[in-house]
Design goal:
Layout lengths: L19 H4 L3 E4 L3 H17 L12 E5 L11 E6 L2 E6 L2 H14 L11 E3 L5 E5 L2 E6 L3 E3 L10 E2 L2 E2 L4 H11 L5 E3 L7 H4 L6 H11 L5 E5 L4 H4 L11 H17 L5 E4 L16 H12 L6 E4 L19 H6 L10 E6 L22 E7 L15 H8 L11 H8 L5 E5 L15 H12 L5 H12 L5 H8 L2 H8 L37 E2 L19 H6 L9 H4 L2 E2 L10 H25 L6 H33 L11
Parallel strand pairs: 1-2, 2-4, 6-11, 6-17, 11-12, 12-13, 13-14, 14-15, 15-16, 16-17
Antiparallel strand pairs: 3-4, 3-5, 7-8, 9-10, 18-19
Helix pairs in contact: 2-3, 8-9, 13-14, 14-15, 16-19, 19-20
């Protein structure tokens, strides 16, 4: 796409029609300040479209948006939605709450003005709700403009420089604010040389983005290079215990805040996949993180330190090495050693955003450390936004996971109550400069939902989907779209990697089937399929011992095939193809059945979408039609390659006599 934004950028979940209920009424905004000005501008725009009054006096108003008489001592994001006399009222804890309250009214539509509207208190469960962009300033020779991006180029950068027109960035901030997101990291966690300079001589570009995001309450974060003092400061070392290095970070951070007073903080990927870190100097992750935390502490800002650290130069013949163990092995012994403004950012699973993984034990293994959960909105291993794959049911399961078993608080509650400011959820973003933001119009649902779940982790993913459909496709048959999308994650799982085995993708770009693609590489992602069985033995008794990283009762449940959930069986156990699942079918028959069923389901999805022609904008319908054709082709390829591979490996025929090549 060209450097300038397309005039035909899709409005996503904020089409003009979403503002009809608000814009056709008399509205009074009683607040001042930049965010209040944004609210006032939104109201004025809506009323200009639908004939309302954007400056109605309070006595005559149908909607009143105001601040609480006593300012909130918290984040100020919360608000009360209520009915008072003949008016609906939003009483916000602070300016950010005023903005969130406005968008709650937009989501409700006419229901927000019902005479019997009950008082509702809205407050985010997690205080920091951040999207991390893997955008490169320069076009990377392998990864391109956006690493693991499937929707075109960056909305921030264009061939090595900041975009001249940041209108689309402002529109993006508006979309995110409407979901509850309140922060964005604007560059890749793999910080290359150009991105390293954003911290110093290119800080003005970062400030311009921050100014564009600010009217919608979105704070800017920056991914930084641990070796920056060497690259930028002409120091001979980046040793976190060296006084010269600590002074460099302190002075550099002070300049960042002098330029961007509401700067959000740093994100760091260190000692992982070739990125520099404290290991170079014989130091720990706590040493490295605490150095940066000390520089940020005077500004009351955090450093988010990613726990994605493992040996990516493994010997495939050494079965004692287990990538799943790595984060816990590295970080759990450091519990209690991190400064208070260090947030350890942990991927939701122990591997790498696979279609199905257990919840990472690191998320509940460090009670004296601030911990954040990291999700991936961009569909690196779940169809790359060429496949319909609605991910919130997966995310909801992670957030609802109870480390203590059937009792005790869910993971989201533990993160919230343990972390000052209400906990942290981060997610790898999936937008690009494509007119449909996410490339696949239906992938916008994942971007919308991650913000809604970050605000309210217990919210039903199906309800979020319906909310998104109602806003985005107001004239389409909602149930038809719901049926097409609601179980699409399970459909994707059916025709790809079975029973939690993971990583059966083509190396490098991670798209399409390749059963042995990573089997003999240094990356440590193996299925160990042989003539007798499949799966990785991660038990304490005979395997890598990964099950021991879980607390009771999960360590016991995962240890035995008799109690391990079917959907994770091959993640934890190497079993015969004839092993009988709890479902009553054998492993090999499950592989055959699900891969046939998944491809059939995609064919049905394609037919259902074709039936929606005429009820969906033609451009949207055409794009999704194109993507569903590719999804069906890919699902059939997955079906045929996986079934053929395991038929040849096991020698066991399909009990239903279907064609296996």
């Amino acid at each position: 796409m060209s450097e300038t934004s397309s005039p035909e950028v899709h409005p996503a979940w904020l089409p003009p029609s979403a503002f009809r209920a608000l814009g056709s009424r008399r509205v009074h905004v009683e607040a001042s300040g930049p965010l209040a000005d944004t609210v006032r501008a939104e109201v004025a725009r809506a009323c200009a479209l639908f004939g309302g009054n954007a400056s109605s006096p309070p006595a005559a108003a149908d909607l009143i948006l105001t601040l609480a008489a006593v300012p909130s001592s918290g984040s100020g994001d919360g608000f009360l939605l209520a009915r008072r006399g003949a008016a609906t009222i939003v009483i916000a804890d602070g300016p950010a709450g005023l903005l969130h309250g406005l968008f709650e009214v937009v989501r409700r539509g006419e229901a927000a003005f019902a005479p019997d509207l009950a008082d509702e208190r809205h407050e985010p469960a997690l205080g920091l709700r951040v999207l991390d962009h893997w955008d490169n300033v320069d076009v990377h020779p392998v990864m391109g403009q956006v690493e693991r991006g499937y929707a075109g180029g960056s909305i921030f950068w264009h061939h090595g420089r900041l975009r001249n027109d940041l209108t689309r960035v402002r529109d993006y901030a508006r979309l995110l604010a409407a979901t509850g997101i309140n922060a964005v990291t604007v560059n890749n966690v793999n910080v290359h040389r150009s991105e390293t300079h954003l911290l110093t001589d290119r800080l003005g570009e970062v400030a311009a983005i921050a100014s564009t995001l600010r009217p919608y309450g979105i704070r800017l974060h920056l991914a930084i290079n641990f070796a920056a003092p060497v690259i930028l400061g002409d120091l001979p070392t980046a040793d976190p215990l060296d006084d010269r290095v600590r002074r460099w970070w302190r002075e550099t951070t002070d300049r960042v805040f002098a330029t961007i007073p509401d700067f959000g903080g740093y994100l760091v990927k260190a000692d992982s996949e070739g990125q520099p870190g404290p290991f170079t100097y014989g130091r720990t992750h706590a040493d490295g993180a605490n150095m940066l935390a000390a520089a940020l502490a005077p500004h009351d800002a955090p450093v988010r330190w990613r726990a994605f650290v493992y040996n990516h130069r493994q010997d495939w013949r050494d079965r004692s090495t287990d990538r799943a163990r790595a984060a816990h092995d590295h970080f759990a012994p450091l519990d209690g050693q991190f400064s208070g403004n260090v947030i350890l950012q942990v991927k939701h699973g122990p591997m790498d955003f696979q279609t199905r993984e257990p919840v990472s034990p690191v998320l509940f293994a460090m009670p004296r450390t601030r911990v954040a959960v990291e999700l991936q909105v961009t569909q690196e291993y779940t169809g790359q936004q060429r496949h319909v794959c609605y991910l919130p049911p997966m995310w909801s399961g992670v957030l609802a996971f109870r480390p203590d078993g059937d009792s005790g608080p869910a993971l989201a509650e533990r993160l919230s109550t343990r972390t000052p400011g209400g906990g942290v959820l981060s997610a790898v973003a999936n937008v690009g400069d494509d007119p449909f933001w996410t490339g696949h119009p239906l992938a916008q649902a994942n971007l919308y939902a991650v913000g809604r779940l970050a605000w309210s982790p217990g919210r039903d993913p199906a309800a979020i989907l319906d909310e998104w459909i109602t806003l985005t496709f107001p004239d389409a048959p909602r149930q038809a779209l719901h049926d097409l999308m609601a179980d699409s994650w399970l459909t994707y799982e059916q025709y790809t990697a079975p029973l939690g085995v993971g990583f059966m993708v083509r190396p490098g770009h991670h798209y399409g089937p390749d059963v042995d693609g990573y089997e003999y590489t240094p990356w440590g992602t193996y299925h160990f399929a042989d003539r007798d069985g499949i799966g990785v033995d991660r038990t304490t008794a005979t395997g890598t011992g990964f099950t021991s990283q879980y607390p009771h009762p999960w360590s016991e449940r995962y240890e035995s095939p008799a109690t391990c959930p079917d959907e994770l069986l091959l993640f934890f156990h190497h079993v015969p193809y004839t092993h009988v699942l709890h479902s009553g079918t054998t492993v090999i028959q499950h592989i055959y059945d699900t891969h046939f069923a998944g491809a059939e389901r995609v064919a049905d999805m394609r037919a259902r979408w074709a039936d929606l022609a005429g009820t969906i904008d033609p451009a949207v319908h055409a794009r999704v039609t194109e993507r569903l054709a590719e999804q069906l082709r890919s699902a059939e390829e997955w079906r045929d390659q996986i079934n053929t591979y395991f038929h040849r490996k096991s020698g066991i025929p399909d009990a239903k006599g279907r064609t296996i090549h």
